[in-house]
């Protein structure tokens, strides 16, 4: 268990088809091989019928590469982007409910302002804050609030996009050759109209 904590997290994005049980099949693949998913976020993309999963996996690099090979074989998976080999921007959101008293209310608010946290709910004995940023910022905010008494927290998990364009990043997607990180997940409508096969 101790060695596992020294293994860096691997950040992956998957473009997947919106079909029943897709999430189950992908998480089952990781589970069968004993990979620990630290966070998983799923949302719609700019393409109807395609969702993006951002997965943070703890495990040896070689083991994660094996998982990517298996993911490639799934019909549901359109594209895999390995952010550990890309320049990327990532964000996370957390809601934190903090216990307050008349004595600490001002101090709690001042700390929240330093982190650009937004108050989303006010109660007689608690304030709920919304904070967005990278993983380090959110963790630091939680630790600053802990002495006052944290009643509840909820984190969304990380989401990520590749920075820039293929012209200015050392791009790499799991497939060999030129990066496909920024190429369309589905073909343009005019190509489909000419009968060119698409991903679906």
UniProtKB/TrEMBL annotation:
Keywords: Amino-acid biosynthesis, Branched-chain amino acid biosynthesis, Transferase. Residues 11-85 form the ACT domain. Coiled coil: none annotated. PROSITE patterns: ACT. GO terms for biological process: isoleucine biosynthetic process; L-valine biosynthetic process. GO terms for cellular component: cytosol. The keyword Disulfide bond does not apply. It catalyses: 2 pyruvate + H(+) = (2S)-2-acetolactate + CO2. InterPro entries: Acetalactate_synth_ssu, Acetolactate_synth/TF_NikR_C, Acetolactate_synth_ssu_C, ACT-like_dom_sf, ACT_dom, AHAS_ACT, AHAS_small-like_ACT. Pfam families: ACT_AHAS_ss, ALS_ss_C. GO terms for molecular function: acetolactate synthase activity; acetolactate synthase regulator activity. Its EC number is 2.2.1.6. Pathway: Amino-acid biosynthesis; L-valine biosynthesis; L-valine from pyruvate: step 1/4; Amino-acid biosynthesis; L-isoleucine biosynthesis; L-isoleucine from 2-oxobutanoate: step 1/4. Catalyzes the conversion of 2 pyruvate molecules into acetolactate in the first common step of the biosynthetic pathway of the branched-amino acids such as leucine, isoleucine, and valine. Dimer of large and small chains. Belongs to the acetolactate synthase small subunit family. This is Acetolactate synthase small subunit. It comes from Deinococcus gobiensis (strain DSM 21396 / JCM 16679 / CGMCC 1.7299 / I-0). The lineage of its organism: Bacteria, Thermotogati, Deinococcota, Deinococci, Deinococcales.
